Amino acid sequence: MSHGAVRPPAGIAVDLRPETAADRPFLLELYASTRWAELRAAPWTDVQKRAFLDMQFQAQATHYRATYENARWDVVTVNGATAGRLYLCCMPGQLRIVDISLQPEYHGLGIGTYLMRSLIASAATEGLRLSVHVEQANPALRWYERLGFEVVDVRTPYLYMERPPSALEVT
Asked: What is the mean pLDDT of each run of 10 residues along the chain (171 residues)?
């Protein structure tokens, strides 16, 4: 995945491939990695936490598929290894980032920023706004702001963010 001047971090090959049913175990672990820290304080056993995360993962998948019928459900690979997911939905006038997640071992390597800059460039080429919902307590909120996203609506606990058309040039 590359768009014009947007390049992946040196020595890292980042690709997307369509999600398959065989990816479910990986996707569940990815989802759990994004939620495990918030469950640390819960007075449950690890087995109970895993059961809760499995239920939440299934609920999220069902919601995403029902809400974003025409979305692309892609798995992110890094140097051939399964590393994350990128779910996108093209909507009238906008490209919606339904979800972008990477396994913790891929954080801080510039992979997410590369993916986002590629999306920014694609949206600019198509003349689309780039939008995303972010939980208010999500540490990624600052990352989205650094990439030029602005809060345009609050739907507690989520912030609806867009990268305005005037900011769609690649940074």
From this structure: 70 96 96 88 91 95 95 97 97 95 95 95 90 90 93 92 67 47
- CA pair distance 94, 116, nearest whole angstrom: 15
Quote the tokens at residue 170: 């690649």
For the beta carbon of residue 147, count every other beta carbon within 10 angstroms.
19
Query: Which tokens hold the place of 147?
Result: 């990439």
The structural domains of the chain, ordered by start, are 14-130 (3.40.630.30)
Separation CA 157–CA 136 (nearest Å): 6
Residue at token pair 């029902």: 66
Residues contacting 134, CB < 8 A, separation 6+: 140, 141, 144, 158, 159, 161
